[in-house]
Structure formats: structure tokens, C-alpha cells
Amino acid sequence: MIPEIGNIFLSISASISLCLFSLIFIKRYVDINFRYTLSKYLSIFIFFFIFVSFLLLSYAFLTDDFSLRYVANNSNVSLENVYKFSAVWGAHEGSILLWVLVLSLWNFFISIYSKTIPKSIVVDMLSIMGILLLFFLLFILFTSNPFDRIFPIPLNGRDLNPLLQDPGLIIHPPMLYIGYVGTSVPFVFAIAILLKGNINISWIAWLRKWVIATWLFLTFGITLGSWWAYHELGWGGWWFWDPVENASFMPWLAITALLHSLIVSEKRGIFISWSILLSILTFSLSLLGTFLVRSGVLVSVHAFANDPERGLFILLFLSVVIGLSLGLYYVKSPKLVFYKKYSITSKEFMLLMNNLFLTITTFAILLGTLYPLISSSLNIGKISVGAPYFNFIFSALMLPIIFLMSPAIFTSWKNTSYNKIQKKLFKIFFYSVIISYIFANIFFSTKFFIVNIAIFLAVFTVLSSLKRIIDILNTTKQNFIITKIISVPSYVYANSLAHIGIGFVILGITFSTYFSTQNELVMNFGDKVNIKNISIKFSGVKNIVSKNYISQTGIFDYYEDKNYVLSFFPEKRSYNIQKNVMTEAAISSNLFRDIYIALGDKLSENSWVVRIYYKPFIQLLWYGAALMILGGLFGIFGRYKSLKNFSDEL
Amino acid sequence: MNYKISALPIFIFLGILYFLYNGLYEDPTVIPSPLIGKTLPVFESTSLISNKALTNKDFLGKSYLLNIWASWCYGCSLEHDNLLDIYNNDKILIYGLNYKDDKKSALDWLKSKGNPYSDIIVDTSGDIGINLGVYGAPETFLINSDGLILFKHVGPISTGFYEKEILPLLLK
Amino acid sequence: MKITKKNKKLITKYLVLFFALSSFSAIIIYALSKNMVYFYTPTQAINNEAPINLSIRIGGMVKINSVKKSSSDLNVTFIVHDLNHKIFVHYEGILPDLFSEGQGIIMTGKLINQNNFLATEVLAKHDENYMPPEVADMMKKDSEVFYKK
Questions:
Q1: Number of domains in chain C
Q2: What is the pTM of this model?
Q3: What mean pLDDT is predicted for residues A146-170?
Q4: Closest approach of chain B CAs to the CA of C102, in angstroms?
Q5: Coil, helix or strand for A347?
Q6: Which chains touch C (3 or more CB pairs under 8 A)?
Q7: Model confidence over A254-282: pLDDT tens digits?
Q8: CB A27 within 8 A of CB A67
Q9: Which chains lie within 8 Å of chain A at 3 or more CB pairs, if any?
Q10: Domain limits of chain A?
Q11: Are residues C107 and C49 both part of a single domain?
Q12: Are A465 and A501 in contact (CB under 8 A)?
């Protein structure tokens, strides 16, 4: 009975979404105030019905209702309650329900937090959201319904994939989805603006905060995914350029470009066409990602099950939505192109370069991701593109723009004198060269020139951003340090922290990629591995029985300079139901290094295959991401009305 | 941006769309991904007939039909003669999976109707069936000597099932 | 077209753009060409359709009872097959958790000859559903079956 209610509520939401969508067509017959109020109510109801549906599905999981096929496939009586709940989004049907729930939530928020933009724009935005919601709801109802029943009712479910029984699963997908789906906000805004044919700077100020919010969740979601892979998969890796990972990274690059493009639009009223195109691009990439993951078109360790029929459904939707948007762009964007003068040494030009490089990098990654499809369609054979392509392309295209980040923050709008920039950066440049040289060649050693460059750029970025904060602090008129800090506009902290974050991330990536040591070897009880002044002894393995798995737990003792520090307990778990074997790595982290130990196979009673990794400074990767997120938070909660109010020098 | 450049994005998109569409309908015998995962799953059980231990490894070496049946299943009695026909004429090995049944009823059923199975796996709880994707009885799988599932039929098998559905697959 | 100052700026702009785009394209094409890996099946390898001693990928199923692990080092051998043919695989390293007999894998490495492959990387894939997609369709069709409640 209860699942049937869930089903019905989804159908009701679909009908209401259709009504919402129709609002855009009845402009001539109904006045704007009525449509505006109606759109708000419709949005609330759509969210309500989908939310209740979602709760009912969760209830089915928590009460072990195995008469639902989806619950039977993804849960089990002995699964812990918190994982029974997160199993709701553990597979295709439930996760797409989560997608549409998040979409209705964003829609709902737009309907209430849009008092500063004209009602006609709001109605158009909500209306376009209506068609997006309608599609996904129909998709669920017709091809991927989590409320489908099965006969006979199994006594027990198949259990959640053990790889997903981890705290990371509970937060990573929801955060990522909030980010992914949030890309629909700039998208519907762009369509509304194209339809209207003109734009006002204050509307851009409104949009920019929403884009920062989406960017935040996407950054957080992707970081969580990498962090989870690092801790869960047992290989010490955190990024594999897997098609599904790329599917989340491309929207991130695009939305980063959009974010910066909107800054120019808000400040100077130009790059409007760029911003609109980037808005369409970002959401398109998000839809494309959804398609790639669920259609079986690309081979990936993350992908949901193959299903060409579902794939076709999504592909048709994708073509209509993106095709019509780009068509609209072709017809209407010329009206939104404005020209203002700016020199090569200006923030506008820097950010133009930023837009260009990020967009090209996005396309380069898209090309590599889709290349297997392209090559087999053109019958040149089955070709896959490996990680080295992506690593190379990413470094080659991104390092120049990272270099530009430092002069960019010191350039003013419209024009800056070259000497001024040079003066600000000269000392920093010099210090950065020295510091990076010391790190790359004295503390560690490398034969790759690229490592020196990467470290230099990271240090350069960090020092430049710090200098900017200090310079601005010095120009404030207050006397006490606390009041000085508070008087600096929040967006200075926003971009400085975010850029310092990027610097840290680059350092984390470079150090852990080029300076780590990997030991994969056979160890007997009592054997030791030595890395610099560290010694790790394999002391033994014990068996532990838990609720739905049996664990073989290794004991590794860690000595520094002959002093005992702590013990590692990596595990090999055998799950009872699905009979999978999972590796749980043991990790010791501090700012300077991670030590990462995982058990491989048992070779005999006291010899095992063991993986011991030493990764210097990898924590900088996570700290950097945290700083980026902190910067984003400053961006959202800033106390200023608009960037236009600040001087051109800032 | 003049008119011409703003048309570029839509052309690029159409190109991408072409490749995506093609990717959906690739010949599955060429890409391994649809084949991946389709083997007889790992299990441990006993034989209904001899009570000896049985695992998935005992079923390698020859192609066979795996028939999911139970004494409570009406459809199974409908197809039983066809199974006996296959067994009596040595067309192909048939193994049974006794699904969610109790031993006495199952053995009695076989005694009164005849036994076409060279061996029968006991699956009282239905767990083995769940891993095979079984949702009811009868269902019949064709499995090759390496344990690969080549074919599945839901519902009672009809006369000529072996010649029409199974033989062509074995001859490929 | 007169070479006025305004035109000169425009020409420079387009030249720079052209140069930039060509260098981007060159970088991308170069990277692609260096990192393309062709994919083959065991049948293609046996039939001499796959290149020897060149980095390629092969995918198939791990044959049951074929995995032999060394007791002293990280060497392992096993057989990988598709519907029709099988090849022998040698690998030195730690196999992924999802690797098991009867499962599908994709490996990167080189063919030593038509039936021997030296793998440098092994990837195992796990579907969220165990069930083949056709079954879902079959469940939707009507069948004359009685189910136990």
C-alpha cells in the first residue's frame, strides 16, 4: 500500500510539473502576478510530493520491505540502519529519484529567494525547471521505478554492495548531486535571459551567489569522492580519470569558468554572451554525465548497469534540451553582446584567458572521455584513452593559467601599468623560485623538470594571494588588527583563500605523485620495511567476526628512529551475503606524510602480500580543497551588494 | 561574437550526439561488457538426491540446462514431460535447482512424475536463486562448459524448446 | 582592405587566436596519439588479428580453476576467455579485490604471441545488478506461471 502511494505521488508531481511548464506558454492570456504566485505554489507542491515519495522509499528500506524489487536488490536484514537509508541512493532507480528530489529542492529555493529579480524572469526560470522535472519524473515512472514490486517476495535481500557500506557513501552522492543538479539554476536563468533579450547587472549579482553555492557543493562532492576512493579502494589512488569521474569534473571546470565570467559581467557588463554560453555548457555537461553513467555506453568501474533503453530515453531528452538551448543561443545571443574597451594588462583580459583555457581544457577532457565512442563509431577500432593522456593534457593546459592567476589578482580593471604588476610580483617570484628549488631538489629529489615548475607555480600562487591580503590590510584605515581584518571586503578573502587552496592542491598532487614510495611485496610475520628513518614491522594477522562480514586484520607496528609510535590494522573483509572481498586500508596521516598499508593475498600461514605506501604532503590535497570551500563560503556570505560598488583597483 | 561563431556550439553538439547515439547500439558480441558477470554464481549447497556437497565448481566441463523448479509450482508440472523427453533422448544434460521447497515434497514429486535431472541443487531459502536473478519458477538457463550463462527462459518450456532455442546456441 | 591601425589590431587578434588554437589542437592530438590503446578480444588474439608486442587491452572472463598464484612472489597466471577462445595471461602484481574466477576483467599489456599475454594492469568490473538486462524485460512479459506467495 505504502509504495503505491509513493508511486502515485510521483505521478502527481509529474502532472504539476507539466502545469508549471505550461506557464511559459500562457503569457498572453494570464497576467504576470497570477502566474508568479501560481508558479511559487506549484514549486512547493512538486517538492512536497517528491519528498514524501522519497521518504516512503526510505521507509521501505528501513522496514525491510523486500516486496519492492529495488529494496530486495540493494538491502539486507543484517545491514546497519544507517546503510539501509543510504542504500536508497545506492543504485540507479533510487539515485535518479534523489536527482529529481534535489532538482525540486533547487526549484523550490529559487521560488522563494528571488525577490530582487523581475517576476517575469522568475516565472520563466521556474517554468523551464518544470520541463526538466517532468522529464525526470516520466523517466522514473516509465523506466526506472524504485516502487516496482516483485513476486515471490524474497526472505532476504541481496545486500548493499560492500564497497558502498562506508560513511563516504552517505554524504558523497547527495553532496555531488546537489552540485550537479544546481547547474540547472544558471541554465534556466540563461534561457530566461535569452528569451527576454536583455539583461540587468543586478540580476547577474543575484545569479552569481547561486553559482558559488553550486560550485561549493560540486567541489565538496568531488573532493569527498576522491577522499573516499583514497581511503576505501586500497590502492592509494584518489583520481583515475575514469569516465564517471570525468563526468563530474567537466561541469566543475565549466562552472569555475562561469563563476569568473560572471565576475566580469557583474563588474563591467561584458562577457554576457560568454556567461550565457558557459551556463548552458555547464548544465549540458551535467546532463551528459548522467547519460554516460546510466546508459552502458562507456566502460567504467563506477557505471550503473547497462541499459540501452534507458540510455536512449536520456539521450533524446539531452538532445532536445541542449539542442534547443544552443539554437536559442544562436538566434538571441547577438542581442546580448556588449563591447567595452580594456587593455591586455587588465583583469578583463586575464579572465578572458581564464575562460578560454578552462573551456579548452574541458573539451580536451571531453574528447578523451568520448574517444572510445568516437573511434568505434568511425570503425577505427576499439580505442581507449588512458590516464597519461589526461594527466598530460591537464598539466599542459592548466599550468599556464595557474601562472596567470598571480598577476591577475594584482591587475586592475580596464588597465594597469605593467610596471606596477612587476613591482608587486618581483620579490614573490624570486622567493618562489628559491623555495620550490629547495623542496624539489634538496628535501626530495626529482629528475622531472615539470615537478619544479608545478611546485614553483603552487608556491607563487600561495605567496601572491597572501601578499594581496596583506597589501589590502595595509591600506585600511583602522588601527587595530581585528577591525582591520573585518573591514576588508569579504570577496578578497573569498578569492585569496580559494586560490591558496588551489596552490595547496597542486602541491599535494605533485608531492604525492612524484615523491611517494610504493612497496608491494611479500612479507612474512616479523619482516620489516624501511623508508627513510621509518621502520614498519609485520607482526601478524588475527580473525574477527562481525555482523555481516568476517575480517582478517593485519597488525603492523610503526617505528620512527627505533621508537615505537603506533600500530596499523589493515583488514581483508569477506562479506557473508554477496561473498565479495573488500580491502580496508590502514592510514596514518599528518601534514607531512601519509603512511598507507593494505593487505593483499594470503600466501601461506604467515606470509602475505602487502602494500605499503609512503605519500608525502598528500594531506595538502584535502586541506587545499577545504580552503577552496572556505573561500566559497566567504563568497556567498559577503556583506556587499554588488561588485560594481568597489573601486577598479581592488 | 558575430552570427557565425554563435552557431559553432550547436554544430559541435550535433557531432557529439551522433557518436553518443551510435554508442548505444554497438554489437554486443564485440564489446565484452554485456557479457561480463554472466556466470553461474558461487554457491555452496547439497544434492537433493545424494546429500553430497555441491558447489558451482562441480558444474564445469560440459554444457547443460539448469532448470529452476519446485513441487508447489504448477507451471513446472506443465513442462515436466518436455524435460523428460530431453533427458530420455540424451539431448543435453539437465540439472535442477529445487527452489524454496522442502525435501520430502520435492522427492515425492519426482517419484510420482519422473526424474529428468542428473543432479539437483537444494535451495530452500532461495538465496542461490536470487544471485541468479530468479524471481519465480519455472525458469531454465543454458550454461556452457566454462560456467557462462548463454540463455535464459522464463516460464514452462514447450515442445521443441531444445531444437528451437538451445541447439542453435550450442552450434554457434 | 587598407592596412589601417584598426585593421592591424584586428589582424593581430585573429592571428594570435589562430596560433593559440592550433597549438592547443597540436597538444591534444599529440597527447591522444601517444596514449591510444586498442582493445581486442581473446578470439582476435588467437586469430592473429591483434598486434604482438604492442601495448593493447584485452577483455574477457577469467576461466574457473585456472588461477595459479606463486607462493613466494607476486607472479600469477590465469586463463581469460570469451565465448570461443582462450588465452594464457601472466601478471606480476597484486590483483584487484573484484578479481575472481568467473568474473569479467579488462587488462592492459602486451601479447607475447597469439596465446600468451603479459599483463601490466588488471581491472575488474562489477555491475550493480547481478542480473542480465534481458531478465528485467522478461519479467514484464506475461507468463503462465504460478508463483509461491
A1: 2
A2: 0.83
A3: 77
A4: 6
A5: helix
A6: A, B
A7: 999 999 999 999 999 999 999 999 999 99
A8: no
A9: B, C
A10: 1-165, 417-515+620-646, 517-617
A11: yes
A12: no
